[in-house]
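hiii so my PI (J.) wants the whole complex modelled not just the main chain, which honestly fair. so below is everything: two entries, each one labled with what it is. i double checked the lines twice but i was tired so who knows lol
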Amino acid sequence: MNNQKNKKVGKHTVKLSNPPKIIATYSIVGPKEGEGPLRDYFDEILNDDTCGKDSYEKAESDMMHTAIRGVLGRTNLKEEDIDYLFAGDLLNQITSSSFAARQLNIPFFGLYGACSTMSESLSVAAMMMDGGFANYVIASTSSHFSAAERQFRFPLEYGSQRCATCQWTVTGSGAMLLAKEGNFPEVTYVTTGVVKDYGIKDPNNMGAAMAPAAVDTLVRHFKDTGRQPNFYDVIATGDLGKVGKEITNKLMMEYGYDIRENYVDCGDMIFDDVVQNTDAGGSGCGCSAVVASGCFYKKLMRKEIKNVLLISTGALMSTTSSLQGETIPGIAHAVAIEYKDK
Amino acid sequence: MNNQKNKKVGKHTVKLSNPPKIIATYSIVGPKEGEGPLRDYFDEILNDDTCGKDSYEKAESDMMHTAIRGVLGRTNLKEEDIDYLFAGDLLNQITSSSFAARQLNIPFFGLYGACSTMSESLSVAAMMMDGGFANYVIASTSSHFSAAERQFRFPLEYGSQRCATCQWTVTGSGAMLLAKEGNFPEVTYVTTGVVKDYGIKDPNNMGAAMAPAAVDTLVRHFKDTGRQPNFYDVIATGDLGKVGKEITNKLMMEYGYDIRENYVDCGDMIFDDVVQNTDAGGSGCGCSAVVASGCFYKKLMRKEIKNVLLISTGALMSTTSSLQGETIPGIAHAVAIEYKDK
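here's the output for the full assembly
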């Protein structure tokens, strides 16, 4: 088992010895996301963000179920062929994921990393594939604006005011299906985040809370792999929004990395904040999920780009922790996705 | 990479090719658990279940941090030596785990499987070890009676009545440290659960909601491995309690497996329900964590038993899902722990 030692490169990064291929993705979004700048990349745009259900929570779970069925439908695989489903979401006790998994006969591992969950689920999924435990796995996350607002902030009916640093939770779900073989984009490196807390207490400024975690993981990734920022065509944080993105650019510069040229943020990309009134940008587990499954994956498949470093970012708070005066810790996990010409 | 194909045995089970060793465990419990039948097995018994903090939620997080520091203290390892921490808990957005991880410089994967989280974290931890991604990992979970009561049921101050099928959330946290080498109990098989829902709606009868998931995973484990129940010295479900245990015994019999001789339930073991007024028994992520880390691990180390099949069981509901009329899905993950004489 000598290959076991080769997988770790540096303290926080592993190099996959048999990089799993992302053979299909599926993205489903709400009406607002469907009016945004990335509209043409999504596989499905809802006309009705309740999905015909009697609650937003049920609608969110339905979206994830649709995304998982959707990604299966892009292949000739059945749910019985899938060895594991790795999924998570923002709702208390990740019920969107559990209730989606209830409708599927797939061994299920629930994950929670707040808005970092897409790259967390993709990390664990890829490592399980590479470890020899699976032939096919699915990684998925979801979020829903209306379900998140009433759980984390106020019922929509209150009409609470928003602020300039506020973000807009993305209504959407993305799913990725990983396999051993095929000419597809593959997961090559996984850099796992540690929890970082720089004392931000404002739950309306998640970007600032999460940016140090993103910077920490980015710097570790570059150090561990020996790569420079210009190696990647796209470096994409999950949902730092405009505020967090600016902080990230500045902090990275302090560490000696100028990432401005190829650095984007999924939350910054998904809405047109001037027209759509989304303030600092999109957020939520679904944000980086649909931007990665929709936009980046399709750009990779079309050979418009050859690689992406996806760093979904999570704010690890609850309403209870904030009300008890706690600061907001952040975490970020990086996954390198590369499409090598063969 | 031919060894990749050998790890799957049957649809839901993997056999670890280099079984990770559980080189240390640590268990910390509250005062009530410290008065129960298993008191002599726990490493630390709190006199004060607030741990000197100003909220039960902070106390729970502190317990997990203590358990993780405790398991490190049982070895000569430092937190820098640990490649990954896999942890989860019952609180919204698993803040007990995230806030414990905040104090540790260890790459962190948050998990959520309700009360199944201990065997979920141990499953993923063992597979990551066996996959060659880590030299040392820690798996941990926690729960706290008073934090769980006010989140899932009522504030304690209401003095709500309990019913015969009610369970008592365990105040406690357990941690296990896995390594590649050493003469210790090892993780040999992992059987991952699917979500099962048989329509139970009563959030005061979790045992009935979770029992079908436990039975499903047990039957799959026996079929996949070819083992019979009598192979194990102990078959332990997580927290089905008295009601769920009885259902499990009956359902297993219907599937042709008589497990009564060596079948126990951690929730049934941890309290003396007559003296301690715990009704159907203990529950919570911490329940199977402290019983496995405390009782079973020490029995293995003392050679009183040679193997355990641990099946932590989770009810995948939230207060929101129950109030919206949803049924309660369950999940169960099985991990075989064996101490082979060498």
